[in-house]
Each structure stands twice: as structure tokens, then as C-alpha cells.
Amino acid sequence: MSDVAIGFSGIAVLLGSIFLGAPIMLALTTTGFVGLILLTALGPALSILGTIYFDTVNSFHFSVIPMFLLMGFFAMQAGIGNDLFDACTKWLGRLPGGLAVATTGAAASFGAASGSSVGSAMLFTKLALPEMAARGYNRGFAAACIAIAGTLAVLIPPSALMVVYGILTNSSIGELLIAGIIPGIIFSVLIGLTILAVAMLRPAYAPRLDQRYSLREKLWSLRLIIPLFIVILVMIGGLYGGYFTPTEAGGIGAVVTFIMAVIRNRGLKPRILFQTLLETVNLTAMIFAIIIGGLLFARFLALSGVSDEIKSLLTDNGLEVWVVLLIVTVIYLIFGMLMDAPSLLAISLPITHPVMMSLGFDPLWFGVYVIVLAEIGAITPPVGMNCFVVKGAAGDLVRLEEIFRGLWPFIATCALMLLLLVLFPQMATYLPMSMR
């Protein structure tokens, strides 16, 4: 059997294992390692495996992941989500669909303090969904607003998913984080406009709030979140200006959110602190295992020649660039429905990234584009990770099928966001290019 045939067989085995329910990290590592043995021998395969493991866990740059995760967990302990939702409700609540718009604004802001799509969806389900249901909102629409708003957390920096992309593609993590700022803001605005449109077309879906707040009340609501925004601006400004690395930015954010949690709770109980650190370690270990498996699988594909074969197939047959982009988009949308975002990136990037780079696409733009695709997968059936998170946090307040029905306007919004990224790639590349 030729090396290329072994490579394609490895892809088939990997996909088959995933569809049979094998853990992604185990399927990636096992397929990559066995494939390397078949291509080389046991000794070289063990050497490659050991090198990848050591380089991943021993690299200073990779420590940005636990720093960002720890920052997110401390932000939850500090009650930042509650403060953001309260402030956004006071400022935006009188708009059509005001509570849902406020939830989007709060989720976008919280994403800048946590970077966790799942955490954001769970938090705002508990905060906002009961309130919207009590105000007469259509429950499926309200839950769908929270599910889509949760996706903003991985586009707006800090984003652990951007870091995963940077590691798997050897791209600049700092530039990737900056690249998500403008698309994240635009995506937030588009989601807000979608909510306004639905609320105006179907007022029964999202009744207006009757309660009015004075300017003094609105300004007072900002007192607890202004320090957070100052820290976020300092982090982003430091990254943009090159004053500190992404890991240092994550460390600063983790320390500040820890201090905020201590102040908010008048101390942090040892049990809560231990639980927070344990959750950070568990999630970091899972992400690192997926990254290691993805890097091992990528090395296997490169040695087998499959990556070059697929690249030649798509680029040497006269296919237009936009046709290749459409094929890649469809692949991500399909597989994004079936697995979580880190696993999707680990499996797909060893194949798609070389192809897109050979066609002249900017790696930072492609990173933002892929993150948006992965997050569309997080809200679409049959998996729709964020939808299951919202359902789990909501309990009997809403049914899963109601959430999926409420998502259709936002699927159109996601498609519009992808189109804007294609038509105006400068959305993702302008800020990183101005850093250089």
C-alpha cells in the first residue's frame, strides 16, 4: 500500500471512529500514531510522539490557554455577568426586544472577559431566560438569542479557540486575537439588529419593557463594570502595541478577575478556589489532548503526502477560488454540526489550512472565517453544543426543539456574516496588519 493510500485510509478510520462515538482526542492520537508506525517504524513514531507531547506542554506560548480559561472562571465567580446584564438591561431594555438585545450586549462584553462560549451560554440562560419568559417572550426565541449570543465569546478576544487555531497552524496568536475584534463587534451588531427586526415584525415574540430608568440609574449601573473594561482595553492595547505577549495578557486578566472575585464575595472560600482551579486544569488538559492529537495527525498526513494530494486535487484542476472556498465552507458546516469546535479544528486544519494558503488566502482571515464556521456548528442540529447547554441550564423552561426553531433568523445572520468576511476581508486583517 502506498503512503498516500495509508493517509486516506487513516482519514477514513478517524471519521469512522468519531461516528462510532470514540473520544476525539483518542481517535486523533491513535490514528496518527498507528499511521506514523506504518509510514516509518515504531522507533521514529515514538520519537515524533514524544517530541510533540514535550513541545506542547513545555511551551511558554501554550500557557495562554489556562490563563484565559482561569480568567473566565474567575469572571464568573466575580459576578461580572450579572453586572453586565443589569447594566445592559437599563440601557437597552426599552428597545424592541430590549431584554434579548441586552443579553447580546452583555454576552459580547462577557466574552471579552471569559472567552468561553459554553460558559457564556450557561450563565446567561440562568440570568436572562427566566426574566424574558416572565416578560412574555417566546421561549424558543429567547433561548435561541442566548445560544447565538454565547458564540460571540470565542470571536472577541480573549479567545481560547483562536489560540487553538494559532497552535495548530503555527500562526501568530497575538495577531489572531486582534483579528477577531472588528468581526466580533460587527457580528454582535448584526445579532442585535436581527433581534430588533424579529421584535418589530412579531411583537408578541419580544414585548417591550415598560419600566423606565433615569440617567442616574443607568450611569450607576456602570460602576462595577467600568474597571473590567479598563482592564480589557489595557490587555488589547498591550497586545496591539506589542507591550506584552498573549500569555502575559491572560495572566494580567486572571489576576484582575481574581481580585474582583475576592472583593465581590468578600473573600474566596478555599473550596470554591480549589474547584475553580480544578475546572481550569480539567478543561486545559482536554484542550491540550485534542491539540496534541491534532498535531500528531497533521504530521501523519504530511508524511503520507495526503495534504499535498488534496491540495493538488483542489488547486490544479482549474477550480475557481470561490468554488474551493465554498467546498471548504460546506465541509466545516457539516462537520461542525457533529462535534465541538476544538475537535473540528484539530481534525480539519491539517487538510484545509495548506490548501487555503496555497490559494493565497490570509491565515489570519482564514482563522476568523473558520472560527465563525465552527460557532455556526455550535448552534445547529443535530449536536448544536450551545443549544444543549442552554436546554440543560433552562431545565423544563424550554424544549430543545423550540430552541432550534427559534434559531432560524440567526442562521441567516451567520450566513450574512460569512458573506461580509468574504467581501470585506479587511475586517479581519486591518488591525493585525497595522500592528506590524
Write the layout of secondary structure elements.
Blueprint: H1 3-19, H2 24-39, H3 42-57, H4 64-77, H5 80-92, H6 98-114, H7 117-134, H8 139-150, H9 160-169, H10 173-179, H11 181-201, H12 215-220, H13 226-241, H14 246-265, H15 270-304, H16 306-315, H17 321-336, H18 341-358, H19 363-377, H20 385-394, H21 400-406, H22 408-423, H23 426-435
Describe this structure in words.
The protein has helices at residues 3-19, 24-39, 42-57, 64-77, 80-92, 98-114, 117-134, 139-150, 160-169, 173-179, 181-201, 215-220, 226-241, 246-265, 270-304, 306-315, 321-336, 341-358, 363-377, 385-394, 400-406, 408-423, 426-435. The protein is an all-alpha fold and 436 residues long. The radius of gyration is 22 Å and the shape is globular. The relative contact order is 0.15.
Question: In brief, what are we looking at here?
Answer:
By secondary structure, the protein is mainly alpha-helical. It is 78% helix and 0% strand. The protein contains 23 helices and no strands.
Query: How large is the share of residues in beta strands?
Result: under 5%
What is the helix/strand order?
HHHHHHHHHHHHHHHHHHHHHHH
Helicity, as a percent range: over 70%
Which blocks of ≥5 consecutive residues have pLDDT under 50? none
**Mean pLDDT level:** 86
Provide the gyration radius in Å: 22 Å
Rough outline: globular
Number of helices: 23
How far do the termini sit from each other? 47 Å
Would you report the number of β strands? Answer: 0
Structural class of the helix and strand makeup? Answer: mainly alpha
| Largest sheet features | none
